[in-house]
Fold:
Amino acid sequence: MNAKVRHTHHVLAVNDLASAVAYFRDKLGFEFRFAVDGWWFLALGDFRVMLGECKDEVPARAANNHSYFAHVTLADIRPVYADMRARYAEILFPLEAKPYG
Structure:
């Protein structure tokens, strides 16, 4: 198969769409793409996320497992990290070199 992936969308169910959108936009630096009935589509460069309001969904943080994550490879994480720190995003661990690169 010669399928070429053009982009991906990461889908997150959120309890409060307005709060989630504000965090992604104001703290993480995502840009608005478009919105439709309970969904917001945002992007940080080529990284795309779809936030869907699901008021009764168990938040990923409360699921207590690793079922909700995205692995993203960047050419240089330092400017992204600095921008998110400047926006006061919640960062659980500082940026550091790891043995796996």
